[in-house]
C-alpha cells in the first residue's frame, strides 16, 4: 500500500493517545492506550464505535518464497527477511460495535477473513466498515494486499482483573517493561494489562545452551513451572530484541495452568512449549512470528490440554503435538475454534518426534485462512517408534493450501528411534479446502508398521467431493476409506 503522508497523521493520533495511562471505557467497548516507544502503523487507522484504536506493527514472513525458505533453513541470515503487518485490539463488552478501517488509498476490493464469519464490509472511498457482535480474530486484506494485512483482535470483556498489590500476582501495567527471565511458581498469576508491552531481553550473564531435541536446553522468558498458575491479560509480549533460537517466550510445565488473552510478537524459537503438563487451557492468545523454528504452540507429552479461540500466524508449525525422547505419552488433547495462517510448515499436526504413544486428539471447528508452506495443512507425521491412535480432524475450513492432508510413517532428519512407528485410527471429516490439487496421502512403512483405519468423510476440495482416486495410498496402508 502507498503510505503517502500518513506518518504525520498517525503521529498526531499517537500524541493524542499518549496522555492516557489506563484503558478507556465508554459505551460497550474498552480501548487501551499505546505506550511511548511503540511504532504506530502508517498503513491503517482503526476506529470502533467512533473512537480511535491504536494500530501496532509486527514483523511477518515476506511474500518471496525463497526468502521464507532461507529464513528457516539458513536461520541467522533470515533475520533480515521479513515484511510488516499491522494489528489492533480492543474489548467488546456487550452488544454490537461498528468498526471503521481507513487506508491511504482508494479501496477497490477487500476481504475480511475468515470467510466463514460472513462479514461483507461497506466500502466508501478509502474507508471500509462493518459491525461485530462477538469476540473474534479477524484479518483484513485490502486491494489484494495479504502479506501486509491488518489483524484485528476483538476480545470479550475482562473479568476479575487481579490486584497489583497481591503478593501472588506479577503485574505489568500500561507502559513499556523489560524482563530477562521470570519464574512463576505454584498459585501465581502473571497479568499483562492492556496498553502494556513487555519486552523480552537476554541478560549478559544468562546461560544459554542449544540441544537438538527436547526443550530443556532452551531458556524461557516466562517459565510457568508448578500448579495452579495463570498467565493472562490484554497486553503484548515482544521478543524482537532476542536473537534467533535464544529462548521460548512462555514455557509451561505443571498442572492446572491457564494462558489467556495476551499477544505474543516475534518469537525467536517455539513460542509456547507445553511439556509434561496436565490440565492446561490456552484461550484467545494471539501469536505473530516470522523467524526460524518460531512454532506457535507445541504440546509435548501432556494430558488434558485445551487450545481454543487462538490466532496464529508464524513461519513454522502452528499447533503441533510431540512426544520427544525422554518424555512420557500424550492423551486427551483438544484444539478448537482457532484461526490459523501457515507460512512455512504445518497448520495442525502431530509429529515429527513421536517416541511415546499418542491417543485421543481432536482438532475441530478451525479456520485456516492461508496455508502457503512447503509442508501439509493437516498431518500425522510419524518418524519414530510409538503408536498413534484415535486422531480426528473435523469441521475445518481451509481457504488456501498447497498440500492438504497427510498420514505418514517413515524416516527423516528428526528420527531418533531405530524402529518405525504405527498409526491406527485417523479421521478427516467435514473439511472444505481450496488449492491447486487435492494432495492427499496415506503412507505406511512396512508390513509391521502400517497406517491403518484411515477415514476421509465428507471432504470437499475446490467445490467437489474427494474421491478415492484423489488419495495416494501405498501398499503398507490398510482400510483407507473415502466416503
Automatic annotation (TrEMBL):
Keywords: Carbohydrate metabolism, Glycoprotein, Glycosidase, Hydrolase, Polysaccharide degradation, Repeat. Gene3D superfamilies: Single-stranded right-handed beta-helix, Pectin lyase-like (2.160.20.10). Pfam families: Glyco_hydro_28. It comes from the Bacteria. One of its GO terms (molecular function) is polygalacturonase activity. GO terms for biological process: polysaccharide catabolic process. InterPro entries: Glyco_hydro_28 (IPR000743), Pectin_lyas_fold (IPR012334), Pectin_lyase_fold/virulence (IPR011050). SUPFAM superfamilies: Pectin lyase-like (SSF51126). Pectinolytic enzyme involved in the degradation of xylogalacturonan (xga), a galacturonan backbone heavily substituted with xylose, and which is one important component of the hairy regions of pectin. Activity requires a galacturonic acid backbone substituted with xylose. Belongs to the glycosyl hydrolase 28 family. This is Glycosyl hydrolase family 28.
Amino acid at each position: 500500500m502507498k503510505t503517502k503522508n500518513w506518518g504525520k497523521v498517525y503521529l498526531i493520533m499517537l500524541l493524542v493517545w499518549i496522555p492516557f495511562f489506563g484503558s478507556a471505557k465508554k459505551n460497550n467497548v474498552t480501548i487501551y492506550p499505546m505506550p511511548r516507544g511503540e511504532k504506530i502503523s502508517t498503513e491503517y487507522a482503526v476506529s470502533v464505535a467512533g473512537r480511535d484504536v491504536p494500530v501496532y506493527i509486527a514483523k511477518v514472513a515476506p511474500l518471496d518464497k525463497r526468502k521464507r525458505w532461507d529464513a528457516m533453513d539458513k536461520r541467522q541470515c533470515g533475520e533480515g527477511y521479513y515484511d510488516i503487518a499491522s494489528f489492533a485490539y480492543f474489548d467488546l463488552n456487550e452488544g454490537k460495535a461498528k468498526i471503521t478501517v481507513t487506508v491511504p488509498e482508494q479501496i477497490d476490493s477487500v476481504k475480511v477473513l475468515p470467510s466463514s464469519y460472513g462479514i461483507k464490509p461497506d466500502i466508501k472511498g478509502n474507508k471500509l466498515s462493518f459491525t461485530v457482535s462477538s469476540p473474534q480474530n479477524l484479518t483484513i486484506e485490502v486491494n489484494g494486499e495479504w502479506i501486509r494485512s491488518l489483524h484485528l483482535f476483538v476480545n470479550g470483556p475482562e473479568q476479575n482483573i487481579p490486584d497489583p498489590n497481591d503478593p501472588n500476582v506479577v503485574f505489568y501495567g500500561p507502559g513499556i517493561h523489560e524482563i530477562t527471565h521470570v519464574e512463576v511458581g505454584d498459585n501465581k498469576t502473571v497479568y499483562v494489562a492492556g496498553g502494556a508491552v513487555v519486552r523480552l531481553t537476554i541478560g549478559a550473564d544468562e546461560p544459554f545452551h542449544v540441544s537438538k531435541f527436547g526443550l530443556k536446553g532452551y531458556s524461557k522468558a516466562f517459565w510457568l513451572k508448578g500448579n495452579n498458575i495463570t498467565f493472562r491479560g490484554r497486553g503484548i509480549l515482544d521478543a524482537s530484541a532476542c536473537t534467533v533460537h535464544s529462548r521460548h517466550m512462555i514455557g509451561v510445565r505443571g498442572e492446572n495452568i491457564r494462558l489467556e488473552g495476551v499477544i505474543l510478537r516475534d518469537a525467536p524459537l517455539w513460542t509456547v512449549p507445553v511439556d509434561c503438563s496436565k490440565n492446561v487451557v490456552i484461550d484467545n492468545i494471539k501469536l505473530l512470528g516470522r523467524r526460524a523454528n518460531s512454532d506457535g504452540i507445541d504440546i509435548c507429552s501432556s494430558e488434558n490440554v485445551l487450545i481454543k479461540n487462538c490466532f496464529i500466524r508464524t513461519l513454522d508449525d502452528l499447533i503441533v503435538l510431540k512426544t520427544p525422547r525422554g518424555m512420557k505419552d500424550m492423551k486427551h488433547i483438544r484444539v478448537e475454534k482457532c484461526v490459523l495462517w501457515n507460512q512455512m510448515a504445518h497448520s495442525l499436526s502431530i509429529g515429527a518426534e513421536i517416541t511415546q504413544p499418542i491417543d485421543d486428539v481432536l482438532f475441530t471447528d478451525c479456520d485456516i485462512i492461508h496455508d502457503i508452506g512447503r509442508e501439509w495443512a493437516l498431518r500425522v507425521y510419524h518418524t519414530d517408534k510409538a503408536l498413534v491412535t484415535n486422531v480426528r480432524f473435523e469441521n475445518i475450513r481451509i481457504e488456501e493450501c498447497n498440500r492438504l492432508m497427510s498420514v505418514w510413517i517413515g524416516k527423516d532428519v528428526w528420527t531418533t528411534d531405530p524402529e518405525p512407528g504405527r498409526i491406527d485410527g485417523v479421521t478427516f471429516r467435514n473439511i472444505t479446502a481450496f488449492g491447486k490439487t487435492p494432495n492427499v496421502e496415506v503412507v505406511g512403512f512396512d508390513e509391521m508398521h502400517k497406517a491403518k483405519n484411515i477415514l476421509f468423510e465428507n471432504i470437499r476440495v475446490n467445490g467437489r467431493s474427494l474421491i478415492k482416486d484423489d488419495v495416494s495410498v501405498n501398499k503398507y496402508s490398510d482400510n483407507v476409506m473415502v466416503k
